[in-house]
């Protein structure tokens, strides 16, 4: 579309130069009027194309803004998913360790949760607040 605008501007310049050359030689007014009408039509078409270019530019900027917002939201979601997966894996590892510790304790003859060694209960304190697990005996 920009190429069309440039082409129309070149035609307008060429027509203006041709008309000046004809005016210096003498030209009937009918031909002069026709040339001016053609030039005015080209100018109107050029202005129409300029308006369309502005509209397309605005639309492109809106699309780009929408794309950027969608990209940012996608990145946020990816980060949230990554954090959730990390938390899930951490919780699963803790639960697995607790099951292993419980089964080992049972195998050694332990019967009560209250009789678990201090090291077993304290091993979860390193992850923040101690986690309470329901351990069936």
Could you please describe the fold and organization of this structure?
The structure is a single chain. This protein is mostly helical and 137 residues long. The chain has a domain at 2-79. The chain is 79% helix and 0% strand. It is built from three helices and no strands. Helix 1 packs antiparallel against helix 2. The chain is rod-shaped, with a radius of gyration of 40 Å.
Extended strand count: 0
Which regions are unreliable across 5 or more consecutive residues at pLDDT < 50? 116-122
Terminus-to-terminus distance: 79 Å
Question: Mean pLDDT score, rounded?
Answer: 79
Q: How big a fraction of the residues is strand?
A: under 5%
The helix tally amounts to: 3
N to C succession of SSEs: HHH
The structure class reads mainly alpha
* Overall form: rod-shaped
Rg, nearest Å: 40 Å
Biggest sheet statistics = none
Query: Level of helix content?
Result: over 70%
What's the topology here?
Elements lengths: L1 H24 L3 H79 L10 H5 L15
Helix pairs in contact: 1-2
Could you write a compact summary of the structure shown?
The protein has helices at 2-25, 29-107, 118-122. The protein has 137 residues and is mainly α.
């Amino acid at each position: 579309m920009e190429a069309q605008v440039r082409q129309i501007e070149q035609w307008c310049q060429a027509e203006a130069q041709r008309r000046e050359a004809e005016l210096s030689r003498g030209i009937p007014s009918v031909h002069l009027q026709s040339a001016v009408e053609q030039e005015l039509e080209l100018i109107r078409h050029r202005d129409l194309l300029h308006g369309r270019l502005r509209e397309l530019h605005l639309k492109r900027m809106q699309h780009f803004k929408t794309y950027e917002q969608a990209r940012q939201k996608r990145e946020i979601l990816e980060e949230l998913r990554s954090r959730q997966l990390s938390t899930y894996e951490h919780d699963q590892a803790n639960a697995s360790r607790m099951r292993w510790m419980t089964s080992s304790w049972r195998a050694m003859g332990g019967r009560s949760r209250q009789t678990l060694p201090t090291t077993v209960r304290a091993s979860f304190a390193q992850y923040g607040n101690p986690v309470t697990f329901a351990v069936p005996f």
